């Protein structure tokens, strides 16, 4: 059953890349995967659900890379960075398709329900976080699971911002920059540099706008 599921996902990925998400039918995916059409619908009731599960291909890539020693680190935080860059390869191969899939993914997601492939990713991240805490790379006063969920959220947020065109360059580079920024922290050298809540600040700081007045993220 898992073999059929993976064949369907790979077939869908190939067809989406060639023809676009909206142009491909579930029947064409079944033909490409060489499975019965009913088999496709048994695994994925609609295209939105199929797009939601496409992330499992990224996690499969990661698990395979770890097993083959292609996430060398050597430090745990470097492994996280390398993992995020690897997982960015599929989306950045076709940004337009990825954006269309994200719209469908957000439609299919259920509040409070973490997809199976995201749970698999969380397990990997939690292990690396625990190693990083033991090595003194990350703060140890928070549970590894909490930091792992933060990192997974960071990856998702960075992917959304990139997919909808708010940053230039590759997704891998954007995620890496955001991860490094998170490690370094955004707080200044002294706490007094941060204005208390409700205090007026320089309007040129923190607006996220460029000289043309366009909003964006770096």
List the domain count as a whole number: 2
Q: Low-confidence segments, ≥5 residues, pLDDT <50?
A: 191-215
Q: Can you summarize the main beta sheet?
A: none
Radius of gyration: 20 Å
What would CATH call the homologous superfamily of the largest domain?
Tetracycline Repressor, domain 2
The CATH class label of the largest domain is Mainly Alpha
The CATH topology of the largest domain comes to: Tetracycline Repressor, domain 2
Q: What's the overall average pLDDT, rounded?
A: 88
Model description:
With 218 residues, the chain is an all-alpha fold. It has 2 domains: 1-45, Homeodomain-like (Arc Repressor Mutant, subunit A), CATH 1.10.10.60; 47-185, Tetracycline Repressor, domain 2 (Orthogonal Bundle), CATH 1.10.357. It is 62% helix and 0% strand. It contains 11 helices and no strands. It is globular, with a radius of gyration of 20 Å. The N and C termini lie far apart (43 Å).
